[in-house]
Amino acid sequence: MPLTDPMDNPGRSRSPGFAVALAVFVAGLVVGLGFSAHLGVQYIAGLVIVAVLSFVLSLLQRIAADTHKRVTAGESSYRAFFDHAVEGIFRTTAEGHYLAVNQALADIYGYQTPEALITGLTDISAQLYVDQRRRDEFRTQMQTNDVVTDFVSEIYHRSGRRIWISENARAVRDWSGELLCYEGTVEDVTEKFEQDRALRVALRQAEIANKMKAAFLAAMSHELKTPLNAVLGFSEIIRDEILGPVGHEAYRDYAGDIHKSGSRLLTVINDVLDVSRLEGGLLTIEARPESVADVGDAAIAMARTLTQDERRIQIDVPADMPTLHVDPRRLSQALGNLLANALKFTPENGQVRFIVRQQPDGSVLLQVQDTGIGMAEETIAAALEPFRQLDGSLARRFEGAGLGLSISKALAELHGGALSLASAVGEGTTVTIMLPASRVGTRAAKVA
User: Fold this and answer.
1) Is residue 115 predicted with pLDDT exceeding 80?
2) Higher pLDDT, 128 or 5
3) Per-residue model confidence (pLDDT) at position 12
4) Which of 49, 117, 191, 336 has a beta carbon 3.0–4.6 Å from 299's, enabling a disulfide?
5) CB contact at 8 A, 235 and 246
6) Residues 6+ apart with CB under 8 A from 292
């Protein structure tokens, strides 16, 4: 049975002032008649008691009237809030029958009026939820917690289409703890739910596409490298005249140019493949104990190969530095990219330094410092992105695919560390790879 509105039968109360006047008049009349009839004192005392009781009753009637007025005003305010709330509001039995709903809920479910909803939806579990088990889950949560929050379900709109709602409700109990009903609110979250679902699908598709791209590039690496290795090998043979004189000096120079360009192309191919593997999560590290000095030497050799720059690189590594539990090839690659950038962007009279320091918390900082051209603070984030060249013109001064920094950053993160960059225009750049204490082994013996 639907809940009845307290405002439907407010009742009427008599005027307390009229009741008091009538009581005083009657009391005076009776007292006067008593005196004229020469009745005793006991009669007069009885009349006084009756008068006092009448006065008390009139006061009680006034209090009752005021209380009724306040309750009526409260119920009226609640009814106005209930009827005009933006969110759907409901009261239901535990079995799944609506006791009361507002117009907003009727609009959400597609009914003209609250009464039409209550009449049309007589079994919430069977008629409302697409998955009828949702009502059982709703009741289970209520029995356990006496409250349900953000209970998202797919339901049937009256038109037959499906929509998504979010319910927040509580159990209403009497003084003895017996359940009276459930009451709560409903919000139509169809648009938000569909947007979230579309976003999840798009992200999943992007992830699949990214992995497919990585797999494709990995499969193509053999097809790309095999002919390139032949170009490098044969050009090296001609350049070095291993099988005999080439007969003309220019041919040897051309062979050297072919070998140099092929080496640069191979480096770009390897970088692109590494970026693809890193983005697809296909690149892993093989950690083992390795000295910092050996990692640094390999990094410097790689940087010189990439840049053909034989300038001196200052090395500042404490003699008692602990060994590192890292993938030496990948960490050398990360540092080699940083050193190559430092050499490329530092003029001939500048300085490039490789510094290693262990921190009090056990972590290790591997730093590459230069006194080169530097970069503006607002361009640092762009420099860390793949395929970003801060000078994007065809006639740019410094060559490269713009992958070195992003690869170094990803390789540092694969080791559980991080890469940071500090720079200023005209003041050089400092790039720091932080390796956590878990990557640091025992200290090496001090060199005498």
Assistant:
1) yes
2) 128
3) 43
4) 336
5) no
6) 317, 321, 323, 324, 356, 364, 366
Yes or no: say if 156 and 121 are a contact pair by the CB < 8 Å rule.
Answer: no
Nearest C-alpha neighbor of 289 from the set 323, 332, 322: 323
Most confidently modeled range among 17-26, 132-141, 282-291: 132-141
In SS3 terms, the chain reads as CCCCCHHHCCCCCCCHHHHHHHHHHHHHHHHHHHHHCCCCHHHHHHHHHHHHHHHHHHHHHHHHHHHHHHHHHHHHHHHHHHHHCCCEEEEECCCCCEEEECHHHHHHHCCCCHHHHHHHCCCHHHHCECCCHHHHHHHHHHHHHCEEEEEEEEEECCCCCEEEEEEEEEEEECCCCCEEEEEEEEEECHHHHHHHHHHHHHHHHHHHHHHHHHHHHHHHHHHHHHHHHHHHHHHHHHHHCCCCCCCCHHHHHHHHHHHHHHHHHHHHHHHHHHHHHHHCCCCCCCCEEECHHHHHHHHHHHHHHHHCCCCCCEEECCCCCEEEEECHHHHHHHHHHHHHHHHHCCCCCCCEEEEEEECCCCCEEEEEEECCCCCCHHHHHHHCCCCCCCCCCCCCCCCCCCCHHHHHHHHHHHCCCEEEEEEECCCEEEEEEEECHHHEEEECCCCC
